[in-house]
């Protein structure tokens, strides 16, 4: 998420308050940050920086839909607002709603044709279509699904049957996802169906090979069925493309 601290006081009379809110967000003081930003909007209902910062705040609190709505609001008030556009793109990836925001980027490019970042995002949306959700940026962000969120809560509460139904519902209605396959793998592992767990983690990795927790779960299930060498091979293939996985290499070398 990006914020903006460079506007002058002349261009934005609430720049100081916005900057304070950004610092509060970084410090994790979300209630006070929200109070500062809402005070700005009461005095200046079209303050785009405050909308963008509220979006950043919502993102930090994992309120993905709220963040999307707030970033879009900022862009509606200021169609060429680069920080909000980039944030809106990430939020749209998270929610699998990128097709909805292409008009925003078309407008932005017409207003600022020399902005390479916005032009690149516009072309990426145009060219990739649904394949955009398989890009490294999208996979790194992960996807939000109400069904998966509910399933995760059921799993954390130990309600395996309910969690399984919700993960299956997500795969059926929203399309296969690494999160759903991984959740099903965890359930299988808890039920001591280790072969099934291993196969489900493999399916999750096929969709998103960049998630350390899924690879570690694969390793645990591999240990239970004598497939550690295969798990190591899968890890090496993933690590070649995703350097962030190096932090778990020691687990696979132990």
What does this structure look like?
The relative contact order is 0.06. The chain is mainly alpha-helical. The model is unreliable at 5-10 (pLDDT under 50). The protein folds into two domains: 15-141, Tetratricopeptide repeat domain (Serine Threonine Protein Phosphatase 5, Tetratricopeptide repeat, Alpha Horseshoe); 146-253, Serine Threonine Protein Phosphatase 5, Tetratricopeptide repeat. It has 15 helices and no strands. 74% of the residues lie in helices and 0% in strands.
CATH topology of the largest domain: Serine Threonine Protein Phosphatase 5, Tetratricopeptide repeat
Helix content range of the residues, please?
Answer: over 70%
Report the CATH C-level class of the largest domain. Answer: Mainly Alpha
Instruction: Give the count of helical stretches.
Output: 15
| Domain unit count | 2
Major β-sheet annotation: none
Shape: elongated
* Overall pLDDT level: 93
Count the beta strands: 0
CATH architecture of the largest domain: Alpha Horseshoe
Query: Which stretches of 5+ consecutive residues score pLDDT under 50?
Result: 5-10
Helix-strand pattern: HHHHHHHHHHHHHHH
Structural class computed from helices and strand pairing: mainly alpha
Beta content comes to under 5%
Radius of gyration: 21 Å
Distance between the termini: 36 Å
């Amino acid at each position: 998420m990006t914020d903006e601290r460079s506007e002058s006081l002349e261009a934005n009379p609430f720049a100081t308050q916005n900057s304070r809110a950004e610092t509060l967000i970084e410090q994790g003081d979300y209630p006070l940050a929200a109070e500062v930003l809402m005070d700005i909007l009461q005095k200046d209902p079209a303050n785009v920086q405050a909308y963008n910062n509220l979006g950043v705040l919502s993102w930090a609190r994992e309120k993905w839909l709220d963040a999307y709505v707030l970033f879009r609001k900022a862009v509606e008030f200021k169609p060429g607002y680069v920080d909000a556009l980039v944030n809106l793109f990430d939020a749209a990836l998270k929610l699998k709603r990128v097709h909805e925001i292409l008009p925003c980027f078309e407008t932005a490019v017409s207003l600022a044709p020399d902005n390479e970042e916005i032009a690149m995002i516009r072309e990426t949306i145009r060219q990739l279509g649904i394949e955009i959700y398989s890009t490294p940026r999208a996979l790194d962000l992960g996807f939000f699904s109400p069904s998966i969120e509910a399933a995760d809560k059921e799993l954390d509460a130990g309600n395996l049957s309910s969690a399984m139904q919700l993960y299956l519902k997500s795969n059926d209605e929203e399309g296969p996802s690494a999160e759903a396959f991984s959740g099903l793998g965890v359930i299988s592992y808890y039920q001591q169906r280790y072969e099934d767990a291993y196969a489900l983690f493999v399916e999750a990795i096929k969709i998103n090979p960049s998630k350390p927790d899924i690879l570690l779960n694969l390793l645990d299930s591999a240990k239970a069925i004598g497939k550690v060498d295969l798990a190591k091979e899968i890890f090496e293939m993933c690590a070649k493309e995703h350097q962030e996985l190096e932090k778990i290499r020691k687990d696979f070398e132990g």
